[in-house]
Amino acid sequence: MMRRPRGARALSLLIAGMLLAGGAHATEAEHIRASQPWLRVLPGDLPAGAYVTLENTGDQPASLHGASSATYASVMLHKSTTEGGMGRMTSVDNLVIPAHGKAQLSPGGYHLMLMKAAATVKPGDQVKLTLIFGDGSKLDADFLARPANATDVDASADHAH
Amino acid sequence: MKLRRANRIVWLLAMILGCLLLAGCNREESVPWRLTNVTGHMPDLDFSLVDDHGKPVSGQDYRGKVVVLYFGYTHCPDVCPLTLAQLHVVMQRLGPLADGARILFVSVDPARDTPEVMHAYVNAFDPRAVGLSGAPREIEALSKRYRSAFTREPDKGDGQYEVSHSSAIYVFDRDGKARLLATPGNPQDDLVHDLHLLLSPGASS
């Protein structure tokens, strides 16, 4: 008589475990929310910087590996630093987005460097970028093209509209 | 009695000297710069470069304007546009006073930054920005003059390369005297505050 409830508990634990395992199989992209995506348009064929805030709603850390785009032939994940008064850019393989945390791509820090535009991008355009995560999963986001002299402050103003 | 009078004169002279010294100190403190004051520590604005109209220019051509000098290059997608966008906001916040100032954006990548490229670039940021390019050795001379530095990084295989460069912003007064040094760490308010002081009528120059 005492065994039955225990058996039922074991079964429910097993089911719960299977559900958890199923959850772990969800892709990184499924847990990422991209907000305020924008890019800075520069004249001619100059490389542009793209920025976005990534929020991870999952229980596992995720990582941004890079991005691709039909508009730009080359997209690279970079980080700017100004250590010792020298401005530098370095390539980044993975940007970690902690579980239930955020990672920010913003001017002067992490950014996507967009090169070799297939067509002229003008302020006001929406440019689709496909974000690629550590497990290979993908997330599309429309980046708003903003003028060269746009600043962060304006981005939040755009958002408020 | 004579000795006493002599003593009194010495005291008086000492007091006058003391007052003068104090006045001197007070005058220094009466200009409350927020950026790093480099007055007297760096040479006057001088160079021989080409502006974004293709015209040869020298430091003398900008006498009468407060100059904000920044080194960078147009293929820099993040930090240079950020700095220039911030300088544009600073100019906007200065209102009509900003007409008395010029942003000089000096290219550390003259191979790619022709006057045409520079013209389109600086005008995308601010109408009071001037793009300067020129012979590599002239750019190097200007950079060395202000203890700035830049290094061309190796090619990435497709002809694309980056240039690491000093991120300092130099401010010169209307007489071409080096006055202030700003870094990206300085709040925008500090630049507005100090440029306002330099640009205001009757500003100490």
Tell me what you see in this structure.
The complex is a heterodimer of chains A (161) and B (205). By secondary structure, chain A is an alpha+beta fold. Helix content of chain A is 19%, strand content 45%. In chain A, strands 1, 2, 3, 4, 5, 6, 7, 8, 9 and 10 form a ten-stranded mixed β-sheet that branches. The N and C termini of chain A lie far apart (65 Å). The relative contact order of chain A is 0.22. Chain B has 205 residues and is an alpha+beta fold. Chain B has five helices and ten strands. Chain B has helices spanning 2-29, 79-94, 115-123, 136-145, 188-199, and strands spanning 36-37, 48-50, 56-58, 66-72, 101-107, 129-132, 150-152, 163-166, 169-172, 178-182. Chain B has a six-stranded mixed β-sheet with strand order 1-10-9-4-5-6. In chain B, helix 2 crosses helix 5 (188-199). Chain B is elongated and about 85 Å long. Chain B starts with a helix and ends in a 6-residue tail after the last helix. In chain B, 40% of the residues are buried. At the A-B interface, strand 4, strand 5 and strand 8 of A face helix 2, helix 3 and strand 8 of B. Strand 5 of chain A pairs antiparallel with strand 8 of chain B.
